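Students often ask what a 'structure token' actually looks like in practice. Rather than answer in the abstract, let us consider Beta-lactamase-related domain-containing protein, a protein of 373 residues. Its sequence is given first.
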Amino acid sequence: MAFPGAQVLIIHKNKTLIHKAYGYHTYDHITPVDTTHLYDLASVTKVMGGGLALMKLQEKGKFNPNMLLKETHPSFKNTDKADFTWQSILAHQAKLKPYIVFWQTAKRKNGRYKWRTFSYTQNKYNNIQIDDEIFLHRRYARKIEKLIKKSPLNSEAKYLYSGLGFLLIPDFVERTSGMPLDQFLKKEVYEPLDLDRITFQPSKYFPLEEIVPTEIDTFFRHKLVHGYVHDENASMLNGVSTNAGLFSNARSLGTIGEALLAKDDKIFDHQIVAQYTSVQFPENDNRRGLVFDKPMLTYKAGSSYVAESASPSSFGHSGFTGTFIWMDPEYDLIVIFLSNRVYPYRSNRKLYSMNFRPDLQQLAYDYLLKNKN
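Now compare that with the structural description of the same chain:
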């Protein structure tokens, strides 16, 4: 099996073509998936969290992609990353390493955690909640920033997917807006769209029965991850990050997708949307927009998680846990697929080998092309 259950939502010209839930939370067939239930979005958070936050700050004149990292984060001034533009960071063109496993850096050689890292009791110092039994020291976020500063760079500036820059965005949003990332997004995007089923830290606001479990973690937490973010690095930022952390149902994402495709500037400045959803470095064979992913510059069957019929103007993102959202302004089409393909273990890659997401999306295009008259 590729996944125990899923939600599918396809919207065309603001009309819902299909909105269904399938299967169960897990393979034990106890809790059926409902369309209201929340999935861990993983890297879809980059666009539905980080991208939207930066776009709103840009509307307010407080950010633009040409800003240098040392301008938004002065502590990077004397590092080899100081002069990276946010355009290069957001388009994965900045020579940054893909990932740092921060929880492993908190371990001693004997396997035990260092002082001022993890604790199995919550107190005023260890108050970042990883799950019900693991708590991180409140100052460890500074260590994460230091490790990013010291991380080696790749030898040349070319497309390489990296989540490191997205770990720095929440701090910038809070310093610039005066609100934590989650509150800023709620005020600027989610509440204006009347969304109440998209959130960080879902176990604070929803019963576990409405949150789909993610994975039996055999690496870090050694238990079922349920109600807390799956991504370890996002968990170390208290579950509020822009590399991962958001939970949502398909309908909430669809509403945001409709707002992104709209031309009325009611929620998003459509010129800024166009900027973020345009290819930034085509000369470097980099298909990426600003935060948003794009179709391959030259389509290769079997190598893309996007349908062959997706137009060059289309945009979206996928997530490690088995999630996907794609918006196509040429067709006025939104395709959303949410699953927990990592359950019970992340080694399950059948979602990829079966080409499930591009095939699902292609069915939507085939339907529209067949019924275009």
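One point worth highlighting: The CA atoms of residues 231 and 304 lie 23 Å apart. Ask yourself how you might have guessed this from the sequence alone, and why that guess would often be unreliable.
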